[in-house]
Amino acid sequence: MQPILDFGVRLIVVLQGLGSWLELPMKFFSFLGTEDFFMVVLPVLYWCVDSNLGIRVAVILMLSGSFNDVFKMALHGPRPYWYSTKVYALATETSFGAPSGHAQNAAAVWGILAAGLRKWWAWLVAILLILLIGLSRLYLGVHFPHDVLFGLLIGGLLLWLVLRFWDPVVAWAKKKNLSQQIITAFLASLVLFLLPLIPFVWLKVIHWQPPQEWAAYATQAISLEGASTSAGTFFGLMAGLDYLAAQGMEGILEKERALARRLWEGLAELGKVKLYGADRMDRRLGVILANVEGMIPADVAAILDGDFGIASRAGLHCAPLVHQRLGTGRTGGVRFSLGPFNTSEDIDRVLEAMAKICATR
Asked: How far apart are CA 29 and CA 279, in angstroms?
């Protein structure tokens, strides 16, 4: 193994010798392979571009994260800057080296995006990004060449498996009822957690210790944090999608609008409550902004929470320009957010509480 590691060090030293001007672009390309980047892209992709493609990206990202944890702990290899002082640590990581998670995620996620878009230029862009992301991990000194190649191989295999079996699995799942779908999602997430648990327990049982030369870098490398995150996120995502499919998006929207209409009309009758936005429910979602005459929104929200056990949100809601447009730019307002699990009884409690608050003014 040492000759492979030594070869990798020599190659990385050559790449880093090309100049520090490459550091910024390499960090940029590296970011395009991170889970943080994909988690920012996912909501946009799901809500604004293609929900089915967004689901595929989310699933393959969770699968990639889980399998990466399995192989990292099973191989428990060092990173270049752990192994040799000749390598500059232009980025730092706490997990083991092989396989490269960035390269693996890049191959899986950018590949599934290209396959979903079904355009030749999408594949060209995806391949270019995958290669640059892998190269960036070498330049930054956080991966050996074999780490990157192994990551690309696993990511490519996951991509093929998802493309090959997605439609049959979805067709099979649609034949199940909601309870069966949720149980299946739970069992699948349990498998995703148990797989990394095997090398984790093995390393603990044999009392494995890293070589003294890089032991200080590997203090957090044996961990189930990533596995629990991936498995939990996978279950939440699948169970949520199963629920949405069973209820229907239109049915959920209509329920929220009906509750919002009842709350709007009830608040409007109180007299001392000012409402903001369109009064036509077909032009809004289940969110209502209100203020009580002569009261600070934060005080109203505090009373609702403390005296009545009702959760609302007071302030500018991270949208100061919207509040300026509504005329609430100084103090904001009290936001009531309704969801599919709210009931008519919840609306009655809010109206009763708001009536008592108004009566004190």
From this structure: 47
The structure's pTM equals 0.81
Widest pairwise Cα distance in the chain: 81
Which pair of tokens denotes residue 236?
A: 């939440």
> What's the pLDDT tens digit per position in 316-358?
999 999 899 988 888 899 999 998 899 999 999 999 999 999 8
Confidence check: pLDDT of 289 > 80 = yes
Whether residue 145 is preceded by a cis peptide bond, meaning omega within 30 degrees of 0, is no
Residue labelled with tokens 């991509």: 159
List the 287-292 sheet strands across, edge first. 273-276, 287-292, 333-337, 313-315
Three-state DSSP class for residue 254: helix
For residue 26, give both structure tokens: 């390499």
Q: What's the pLDDT score for residue 148?
A: 96
Given a contact cutoff of 8 angstroms between Cβ atoms, the answer to whether 328 and 276 are in contact is: yes
Distance (Å, rounded) from C-alpha 149 to C-alpha 146?
5
- Which CATH number does the domain housing residue 286 bear? 3.90.1150.10
Q: Which of 218, 247, 276 is the last residue of a domain?
A: 247
DSSP state of 95: S
Pair 257, 221 in one domain: no
Q: What tokens were used for 109?
A: 């996620």
Q: How far apart are CA 267 and CA 290, in angstroms?
A: 8
Q: Which two tokens mark 310?
A: 């009702």
Q: What would the pLDDT profile of 1-53 be if each residue is shown by its tens digit?
A: 788 998 999 999 999 999 899 999 999 999 999 888 988 888 888 888 888 89
- Closest residue by Cα to residue 108 from 51, 168, 68: 68
Q: What does the alpha-carbon distance between residue 133 and residue 101 come to, in Å, rounded to a whole number?
A: 11
Residue 211: domain span = 2-247
Write the DSSP assignment of 5-43 as a string of letters.
HHHHHHHHHHHHTT-GGGHHHHHHHHHTTSHHHHHHHHH
Q: Examine the domain organization and report whether 66 and 140 are in the same domain.
A: yes
Identify which of 337, 334, 233 has the alpha carbon closest to the alpha carbon of residue 285: 337
Q: Closest Cα partner for 229 from 200, 256, 189?
A: 189
* Helix, coil or strand: residue 276: strand
Instruction: Assign 3-class secondary structure to 44-76.
Output: HHHHHHCHHHHHHHHHHHHHHHHHHHHHHHHHC
